[in-house]
Amino acid sequence: MSVHIRVGSEPVDPGELRRLVKVEGCGSIVTFVGLTRGLENGIPVERLVFDSWEDELPIILERIANDAISSFGIFSVVIAHRTGSVCPGENIVCIHVGSAHREEGFSACSWLISELKKQAPLWKKEIREDGEHWKSGLG
Questions:
Q1: Rounded to two decimals, what is the model's pTM?
Q2: Which stretches of 2-139 are DSSP H helices?
Q3: What is the share, in percent, of the chain residues with pLDDT greater than 90?
């Protein structure tokens, strides 16, 4: 079993992160990449700004990754999340899941992004044409 977590202001490169997936025994790698949208409710978005509880965020992400391995029987999880300013079209988050079969890989990947949004101590502010707007909740 393998877990890799990256958090920081550097760009998220799914190809680079893909190389961290432990592929032994895998027949599937499922990937989710979340990007900054250029429009929110028809209003142009200039950028998103992510703030986090820096010390706790990697711990939470590692815990949910290990929970996914236990719950879904997958082999490997790689999660990277940006902090700071992220412009439209740029990657915010990348999750790779290595599994024996695609079904558990898709289920685990979907669960991971949902849990990240529920549990990760991240806060998002939209800088839009009409001003600054904090988005409610975590993730």
A1: 0.94
A2: 14-18, 57-72, 102-119
A3: 94
